[in-house]
Structure formats: structure tokens, C-alpha cells
Amino acid sequence: MSDLSKGYFVENSGTARYSGAGVLRRLLAWPTQRSRSAISAFQPSRRTQGRPVGHRVRLNGPDAVEQTLRARKIGRSDVRQPIGLASRPLAFRFCKRAIDLFGAISGLFFLAPFLITCAIAIKATSRGPVFFRQDRYGLNGQLFSIYKFRTMRVHQGDTSGVKQTTRGDPRITPLGRVLRKTSFDELPQLINVLQGTMSLVGPRPHVPNMIAAGVRYEDFDPRYMDRHTMLPGITGLAQVHGFRGETLTYASAKGRIDKDIEYARTATIAGDIRILLQTVRREFLSGNGY
Questions:
Q1: How far is CA 100 from CA 103, 151, 224, 249, in A?
Q2: Can you tell me the mean pLDDT for 177-200?
């Protein structure tokens, strides 16, 4: 069916392959008239809902783009629009990476004496490694290893992440309690930023099967995987709005996802700088962590 005057063209037959990937439907023609936007209609697969699979649109030609999409309502239909890092201009991505590299290198250099002191104190006060490593969701749902200073007694930390840390958690060491309260345990994630698996600012990386309000995050909100269209961050919009720590209630879990997706939709360099400044004041200076 098609009506170029109304701006849509759908081909109902034929399959193809693009760069080794199966293509279910192709648009053999695209309206030649100038238009500000275009809509591609499809039925999402049940196998991809709630999983780290992004819906993408590829336009061939000299101005080809490939974008991850987000959903919004137009009438009774869910229409997906650009969201995340892939949809941002090259200048934004370049500036964000430059700020990340500058921040990570500067932080590791100037904080080196403090980081070494923390490492020595951890080894001196409890058995076990200095760093705690855990698999987390990264960009586009890819798993990566996150670094943190170890704050729990050895063999008592939950590497699966299913059991959330609670206020007054008995697994935490005395030194670990200080590190968590000041959020200094997060500083080794500057290594992740340097590696490119994290950014200074972005949605906080979650472990697979993380629980929110008694259910898995993936089952809690169908938009959950949209938050992974941005690099995860050491801090983020949700954190500076108070959404951190346990997610025991519907309101806290939904608030965190709402802010994460808002960031993926509206992120700017100026906004990142504002979040960083708010984080220094709220997290490192006020001691809100646990």
C-alpha cells in the first residue's frame, strides 16, 4: 500500500539481505518530495520485546543514516523516533568522548595518590582483592566488566547483582561503608570511561536480571532497553534527581527509568556538565550513598 501524497510507502512482498543480516521488508522507493520526517511501519517480534534489541532504520544514498528508535504515540499508533547515541550528531559524540577522555585521564592522574591510599587501606583492613568486578549492561545491551573498589567482605558480594545492597547491609566492611557513603567506591570506573565502555554521564549500568519493585526490570517496563542506547555513566540524570539505591517501590523504579530515557532523548553537552557539577555537590560532598 502507498500514498506518496501522505508520506508513506510500504512494500508487502520480497525479502533481501543487507550486510549479512536478514531484511524482512524493503522499501523499494522512497518519496522524492522534500519531507521533514518519514515513518516505517512494522510489527515488533515477540522475541525482541524486552530484550536488548533495537529497532533500526537504514536509508541508503549519499545522506544515509542508521538510527535507533524510540516509541511515541501518534493517534492510536506507537511510532518510533530517533533516540540514543547513534541518533546524535557527530559533533555531539566527538565532544562527549573528548570530555570523557579529559575527565578520565585528569581524574586518574590527580587522584592517583588518593586511589592508591584507598587500595592500601582496603588490603590492610579486609581479606580479598582491591577491586570488585561485575558484568553490567553497556551500550546496546552489550555486557562489560565494571570496576569498583571492593566494599564488601570477600565471598559475600553478590556478583549476579540480583540481591540489592540495602541501608545498613551487614556484608559491607567498615571502610566500605565510608567509601559507599561518599561514592568514592565508584572512582575506579574512570578506568571504564578510559576504555570506552562507560561515559562520565549516562544511565547507570545495571546487572542482567536486576530486580525493580519485585520483578525483573526487563519485565517491569517495556521501554527498559531503550536506556541502553546511550553509554552507561558514572553518574546520570536519574541520580541527580534522587533516584539511586534500592528500587523497592513502583514509583522509585519508574522514576529511574523515566529519567534514564529522558536523558537518552534529550542529552546535551551543557546538560552533561550540569549533571557532573550537581553530582559533585550531591554525592561526593553530601554523603548520600550507602
A1: 5, 25, 25, 33
A2: 95
